[in-house]
């Protein structure tokens, strides 16, 4: 079976009726690059930049970061690489930057940390921009956004770094800037956020955790954590509806995109791209190639009427197995 799936790498990700669903990969380590290219990814939808920070013994310098980012941008060129600014806090700690809090997932996380430390943010953005010189396939993505002020402040800092580097003589194009939708409150500000940026990407791992108030890493409540919970599916659908008609493209880069059942529903909702761990790409592509877009839409309409995750999972199992 695996062999059959590997053979898909060169085939397009499209439905039986010719609808194209671009599949991207999530990366973090340099090793992820070869793996992703072998699986026929159409770019990077999420580069978790905290990974190189986590394997370092101190904050990596601007030139050290630049080298890591250049490697990613070059490997995927001319396809886009979406680099997320440092997303530490929550469950991701840097040994040289301890954060001790009673509620880390509700605390100092992601953009909250870097906006409080603009020097860290600026060094990182400068390194990304320097790395993109001559390639121009860089997108910058902001994690854990919970209000419009954070979006505006981040854009101001990125613009400042861009102008500084241009005046230093670099030939740069402005990167696309995007916001992660992973804090439930932002679901209700999608149109306002979409006016400020170029793309949105849903972090379904955190969005599920926060919508259902279930720690994504706590085994005791693991059976309550499901992205197939009707509340989550309705939230994802609401985001797609709200984004539709804005100038933003919409992606989803959580684990749900790497589950063929999730991918099919997201395609039906109108997500423009899906980003997943490379190992899941072949099975997602295989599922997409086996059905028509209208089959996916019918399935979505049926699933959105159900009341529990269990019902959703059971109904999906039936349809997916009928697809062979
Ligand atoms: C997410 O929250 O869904 C996501 C993609 O980011 P991370 O898993 O790194 O928090
Ligand atoms: Mg997240």
UniProtKB/TrEMBL annotation:
Gene Ontology molecular-function annotations: kinase activity; metal ion binding; phosphoenolpyruvate-protein phosphotransferase activity
GO cellular component, one term: cytoplasm
Residues of the full protein shown: 423 to 746 of 765
Family to which this protein belongs: Belongs to the PEP-utilizing enzyme family.
Coiled coil: none
GO biological process: phosphoenolpyruvate-dependent sugar phosphotransferase system
Protein name in UniProt: phosphoenolpyruvate--protein phosphotransferase
Primary localisation category: cytoplasm
UniProt-annotated location(s): Cytoplasm
Keywords per UniProt: Cytoplasm, Kinase, Magnesium, Metal-binding, Phosphotransferase system, Sugar transport, Transferase, Transport
Species of provenance: Oceanospirillum linum
